[in-house]
Amino acid sequence: MHSSFTARARVRRPALAAVALGLASLAFAVAAQAAQPLTLPEAQALAVARSPEVAGFGFAADAARESAVAAGELPDPMLKVGVENIPADGPDAFSLGRDFMTMRQVGVMQELTRKEKRELRARHSVLEGEKSMAERSLAVANVERDTALAWLHLRYAQAMRKVVDEQSAEARLQVEAADSAYRSGTGSEADALAARSALAMLEDRASEIDQRIRAAKLALARWVGADAERPLSGDAPIDTPPLPETDLRAHIARHPDLQVAAKEEDIAANEVKQAVAAKKPDWSVELMYSVRGPAFSNMVSIGFSVPLQWDRPHRQDREVAAKLALESRAQAEREEMLRMHVAEIGAMLAEWRTGRERLARYAKSILPLARERSAAALAAYRGGKGSLSEALAARRDELDARLSDLNLESENARTWARLAFLIPESSSMKDMK
């Protein structure tokens, strides 16, 4: 018995080892995926794939396409069954076969809807599907834009944290130097306290930026889920124009918001055509077979029916007028939306250009001057010609200048993203690395 147990244990060990190896491989693959950097294009692709709203509009388009097939068919025929002329009194009361007028009937009725009307109804469903696809494009554009905004927010918050970390490392060295100088009698207690105060302020600034990073990760996680914890990589080409400089109005006309409005205008125009087509009435045909008693002949009946449009000026003509008014309203709304987008996007383009000018000024003069002043103040302190407080103040001004530059670049990048991702198929990302 002992040898049998040992044999079974030997059989199980390779299987357990294989399972453990598989789990280890899976964990390694997950860890490797988590360690890979998350680029902006990948984040946008993940967000679009995860978006329930985008999927929902796709389902709506599928539903409209299916409805278009049904709308193009004739209505279902109606089966009619009944008994006519049943005696109510006398010797043949309630008999179904003794009175010559009693008939058991079975028949079918078909409404012959005009082909033009059926085609217009099918076209209406097709237009609804196209509108859903335009709404899907709008949802994709919104997801790509909001994902880009969240990704850029996190990217620049992490860049600010790096700048503060560099300053904190230098501040710790200054604290050590000031403490050493104070202990040796070559420095003052005020300098030591000033160095510690500067370090504490940097640590507080780091806490503030950490909160910004946490908030940015939560915002990005809304779109990409757990991938928001991955390190970020790559940059956006924010120094290249996000929109064509010429024929801006034509480019804006491709905005999904305006495409949705255009489809609504097409639907309104189709409803006008349907209202005009409704002025031509449809016929119905009915075939009836009537069974009488055995002593009497059976009967076959055929009939036609058509609505009598006896008050067209107050019914059909008013319907056409109403649909024409709704079409005009859709046209006016699309034109108003186009003007609004032209004004808003023009303002954002001006804001982006101003931001580029300010960033160029920071790179050319503001940041170099801040670094030079900081270096000069530190050199004066080390040479005994200046105080540590002056050196720390210059260092603090340099930090503020670098963070202001990053803040400005972050806002400029976000403005760029709002412009670059107006349209899902925008080629603005082709230059991204």
Please characterize this protein's 3D structure.
The protein is an alpha+beta fold and 433 residues long. It has a single domain (39-76, 114-281, 313-431), classed as Up-down Bundle (Outer membrane efflux proteins (OEP)), CATH 1.20.1600.10. It is 69% helix and 8% strand. The chain contains nine helices and four strands. It has helices at 2-35, 40-50, 52-71, 115-184, 189-224, 248-252, 256-277, 316-382, 388-420, and strands spanning 78-84, 103-112, 283-291, 299-305. It has a four-stranded antiparallel β-sheet, with no helix packed on it. A hairpin with a 7-residue loop joins strand 3 and strand 4 (299-305).
Helices, by number, come to 9
CATH architecture, by name, is Up-down Bundle
Number of beta strands = 4
Q: Which H/E pattern describes the elements?
A: HHHEEHHHHEEHH
Q: Briefly, what CATH class?
A: Mainly Alpha
**What is the mean pLDDT?**
85
| CATH homolog superfamily | Outer membrane efflux proteins (OEP)
Which percent range describes the beta-strand content?
Answer: 5-15%
Shape designation:
elongated
What's the gist of this structure?
Helix content is about 70%, strand content about 10%. It has helices at about 1-35, 40-50, 50-70, 115-185, 190-225, 250, 255-275, 315-380, 390-420; strands at about 80-85, 105-110, 285-290, 300-305.
